[in-house]
Each structure stands twice: as C-alpha cells, then as structure tokens.
UniProtKB/TrEMBL annotation:
Taxonomic placement: Bacteria, Bacillati, Bacillota, Negativicutes, Selenomonadales
Keyword set includes Transcription regulation: no
GO cellular component: cytosol
Stretches assigned to the MGS-like domain: 1-146
GO molecular function ontology, one term from the record: phosphoribosylaminoimidazolecarboxamide formyltransferase activity
Keywords annotated in UniProt: Hydrolase, Multifunctional enzyme, Purine biosynthesis, Transferase
GO biological process, one term: 'de novo' IMP biosynthetic process
Protein name: Phosphoribosylaminoimidazolecarboxamide formyltransferase/IMP cyclohydrolase
Signal peptide bounds: none
SUPFAM superfamilies: Methylglyoxal synthase-like
Amino acid sequence: MKIKRALISVSDKTGIIDLAKALHEAGVEIVSTGGTMKALKAAGIPVLYVSDVTGFPEIMDGRVKTLNPYIHGGILAVRDNPEHQKAMQEHHITGIDLVVVNLYPFKQTIAKPNVSLNEAIENIDIGGPAMIRAAAKNFKYVTVVVNPDHYAEIAAMLKKGEVPDDFRMKLAQEAFKHTAEYDDCIQNYLLQKMEK
C-alpha cells in the first residue's frame, strides 16, 4: 500500500525527525499530537495538528486527543470495501496509511523511586494502544511502527514506493506483542499494589 498520510505520536522521539523528513520528502502528509507536533515543527517539517483533523481540542490533560472517528475511521477503514469507502466519503474521513506510535513510559515511571500511584496511573497510555491495535488489525492496508529500529527500513521502503505485505504483517505482530507486554506491566504493577 502506498503511504499518503501518516499519524505520528511518540513519547520516545529517538529518530523521529529523520523519519518525518523522509515521509515529507516522499510527499506524505503528517498528522501529529502535541509534543511530537512541536518537535516536528521545530525541525521545520510541515505537520497537521490532530485537533485540526478531529475538529476537537486535546482535553483532560491530554487524556483525550486521538480517540475520535476521524482518527480511528482513517486507520480501520477497509480500503477495498465499498461500504467503508462510502462511509469515509460521507463523513469526510481521510485514510491513515502509517501509524508511528510508542507509548507513555509506564515501565520507566514505575521504576523511579517513590513514584506515586497517581503518577503511575497518568502514565498509562490509552489512545496510543488503541491506535496501535487498530493499525495492527488493519495491517492489510496500514503500516504500524512501534519500534524506532524500523524507521530507516520504512524510509528506504518509501523511496521504493510502498511497504511490502509480509513486512506489514511482521510489524503488526510486533505491535500486538508491544501492547500485550505494556498491559502485562500495568496489571503486574496494580497487582503488587493490591498485595501491599
């Protein structure tokens, strides 16, 4: 699948500027959230703010920003399903072909000495796993990247025109593994808290 629009929302910004530059050079429109958007803009990369796509501001201290049909419809649409295409047209939803997301640093947060339960809870990512899982589910049409180690490969594939099917499936498997490990870390932390 050719990548026309990408959504980038990362806590770990390692390598993200280089990837975004490669995306921009390949003519890909980039949509992004708060901190990532600021980093991309500071690097001179054109970026569309997620709130401009959703028509809704980031609210509740950033807890709600990407949980929106304009985002998830764009990710989950089955591109060759006429009903999905019709819904996209009726609701003015643009497809999202690449999702580059890594999650709030929950594991690193709880590793800090004397971290409060409240701080730990605020580092439980909700929108990130939802986007990752949506993109991974729809890997036939969407490329999902949760590991910065793949950025150079993705940039190289963009130059060739598209990301191969088997590589998209590999990335989807990695994405589900990533969210499963993330949730497992959270449930273990809460279990430990309950046992005290």
